[in-house]
Design goal:
With 456 residues, this protein is mostly helical. It is 72% helix and 2% strand. The protein has one domain (6-455). The strands form 2 sheets. It has a two-stranded antiparallel sheet. A two-stranded antiparallel sheet has the order 3-4.
Length: 456
C-alpha cells in the first residue's frame, strides 16, 4: 500500500543488467598479439576508473535534480549530496560533517507512509469483523516490516562513491532523466496515479463502507481514522513528487557497481592471461591494487547497501505473510463477526477480507522474488569469469604462473575477492529465486491446505 517506490526499489532496476557488463575479452583467442599488447591499456583503464571513483566523490543534490525537485527533496527528506566520504572518518568528525541525507527526515517520511497505510487498512479490517485491537495489529504488520527496515540501507546509497561517480556523468540517460525538469505531462501522470490510488483505497471505502457505518452506529472513531488517511495521502502526494526520482537513483547505483565489476574483471583477465614475460611480482602487485582499491569497495556496497536492502525486504515480508494468513483464517485465534453496514452484505465484507489477506500474502513476496532474481547480476558476471578460467586449461595455466604455479594460492585469491550478493550466507545466483519461491509455495500451500481442512 506504500505510495513511494521504497518497497519496490529493485523491481525493474536491473532489467537487462547482465548485458551491461558482458566481458569483452575473447575467451578462445590466445595467439592474438593485440590482446597481449592491450593488456596494459586495460589495466590503465581500470586504474583511471579507480582514480575517478576516489577523486572529488561528492555530488550536490541541487546539481542532480531540477530546482523544483531539489527543493522538495531538501525540505521534506533532507537530501544534501551524494558520496563525499567512505565512512572512514571518526565519530567526532561525523558530527561536524553535514550528512548526505538527514536520516531523521527520511525515516519520518517512511513513518508517514506507514501511518497512511495503517489508517487505510484499519477501517477495512475493523468492518470485516476484527476487533479494534486485532485490526490495529494486523494493519501495522501489513508492510510494517518494510517501512521500518528499508530506510536504513537506502540511506547508505547516498554515501556511496559509486552513485556519486555515476551522477557526475551528464551524458548518462538515467542522469538526464533525473535532472529533467518536471513538466505538465510529468505532473499530470503523477497526479493521475495518485488520484487513482486515493480513489480506490481511500474514497471508495469511505463513501461506501466507513461513512454509512458511522451514520448507522455513531462510531465516530472511524471517521477520525479516515481524516488521518486523507491528510497523510495529501502530504505524501506532495513529497512523492520528489520521491518519484528515487527509483532512477537506485538504478544508477546498481549499474555503476556493475560497471565497476566489469572494469575489475577485464583488468584481472588482462593481468592473469598475459602471455608476455611479465614479472610475477609486478602482476601480483597489480592484482593487490585492484583488490584493495576496486574489488573491496564493490564488495562493501554489495554487502552494506545493495545486499542490506534485499535482506531488509526479505525479513520485512515475514510479518506481512503471517498476518495475511491470519486475515484469511482468523478462526485460528478467534471467531470474527462482520459489522452491519447498510446495503452491504456479509459476502461483500468476506470478499474484502480475502482480498486484503491475499494482498498481504502475495504482493510483497512477489516483490521480494523479483528483487532477488534481478540481483543475481553481480554473481553471474563473476561466475562467468571463474567458469571461463577453470574451463580452459591454457587460461588456468597462465593464471597459475602469476601465483608462482601455486594452485591453492590462486584459488584463495579468487575466493577472497569473489564478487556476489549474498542472502543468508548463500550467493544470489539465477537458481536461488526459484528455490525460495518453491519453498515459499510448499510451506504456505501446506499451511493453507491444513487450515482449510480445519474449517470443514
Amino acid at each position: 500500500m506504500k505510495q513511494s517506490t521504497t518497497s519496490s526499489t529493485y523491481i525493474s532496476s536491473l532489467e537487462g543488467a547482465t548485458n551491461l557488463s558482458k566481458i569483452t575479452s575473447n575467451n578462445d583467442n590466445f595467439g592474438d598479439s593485440k590482446e597481449t599488447v592491450g593488456s596494459e591499456k586495460v589495466f590503465d583503464n581500470a586504474k583511471t576508473y579507480i582514480e575517478r571513483l576516489n577523486s572529488e566523490n561528492k555530488t550536490l543534490a541541487k546539481e542532480v535534480f531540477s530546482p523544483f525537485i531539489a527543493k522538495i527533496n531538501s525540505f521534506f527528506l533532507g537530501m544534501n549530496y551524494f558520496g563525499g566520504h567512505d565512512g572512514t572518518f571518526t565519530k567526532v568528525d561525523a558530527k561536524k560533517i553535514e550528512p548526505p541525507i538527514q536520516a531523521s527526515k527520511y525515516f519520518a517520511y517512511h513513518m508517514v507512509c506507514w501511518t497512511q497505510a495503517i489508517s487505510t487498512l484499519y477501517p477495512l479490517l475493523f468492518l470485516s469483523g476484527f476487533s479494534m485491537q486485532q485490526s490495529i495489529v494486523a494493519a501495522c504488520m501489513v508492510n510494517g516490516g518494510i517501512f521500518i527496515l528499508t530506510p536504513w540501507p537506502e540511506i547508505k546509497i547516498f554515501k556511496s562513491k559509486f552513485i556519486a561517480l555515476r551522477l557526475r556523468d551528464k551524458n548518462d540517460e538515467i542522469v538526464k532523466d533525473i535532472k529533467k525538469t518536471v513538466g505538465a505531462s510529468d505532473l499530470g501522470l503523477f497526479l493521475g496515479s495518485s488520484l487513482i490510488y486515493t480513489l480506490l483505497f481511500v474514497l471508495v471505502p469511505a463513501f461506501y463502507l466507513i461513512i454509512p457505518y458511522v451514520r448507522e452506529t455513531n462510531d465516530v472513531h472511524l471517521e477520525y481514522v479516515l481524516y488521518v488517511s486523507c491528510c497523510t495521502s495529501a502530504l505524501l502526494g506532495i513529497i512523492n513528487i520528489g520521491m518519484a526520482k528515487w527509483q532512477p537513483l537506485v538504478t544508477a547505483h546498481q549499474k555503476e557497481i556493475l560497471k565497476g565489476i566489469q572494469h575489475a574483471i577485464e583488468a584481472i583477465e588482462a593481468i592473469i592471461y598475459d602471455q608476455e614475460d611479465i614479472d610475477q611480482e609486478m602482476a601480483q602487485e597489480k592484482l593487490t591494487y585492484l583488490s584493495k582499491n576496486l574489488i573491496k569497495p564493490i564488495q562493501h556496497d554489495l554487502m552494506y547497501v545493495w545486499g542490506a536492502e534485499i535482506l531488509s525486504i526479505f525479513i520485512g515480508i515475514i510479518p506481512s505473510l503471517a498476518v495475511g494468513l491470519y486475515i484469511l483464517f482468523p478462526h485460528i485465534i478467534s471467531e470474527i463477526s462482520p459489522k452491519t453496514i447498510p446495503n452491504i452484505s456479509n459476502d461483500a465484507l468476506l470478499g474484502l477480507r480475502i482480498l486484503i489477506g491475499m494482498f498481504a500474502m502475495l504482493f510483497m513476496p512477489m516483490i521480494c522474488f523479483v528483487t532477488i532474481k534481478a540481483s543475481s547480476a553481480p554473481y553471474n558476471l563473476w561466475h562467468q569469469f571463474e567458469t571461463s578460467l577453470h574451463q580452459y586449461a591454457r587460461k588456468k595455466s597462465l593464471a597459475m604462473d602469476k601465483f608462482d604455479g601455486n594452485h591453492e594460492a590462486l584459488m584463495a585469491w579468487l575466493t577472497h575477492n569473489r564478487i556476489a550478493l549474498y542472502l543468508g550466507g548463500y550467493a544470489i545466483d539465477h537458481d536461488l529465486p526459484m528455490k525460495i519461491m518453491g519453498a515459499f509455495a510448499s510451506i504456505f500451500g501446506t499451511i493453507c491446505f491444513l487450515l482449510l481442512r480445519s474449517q470443514v
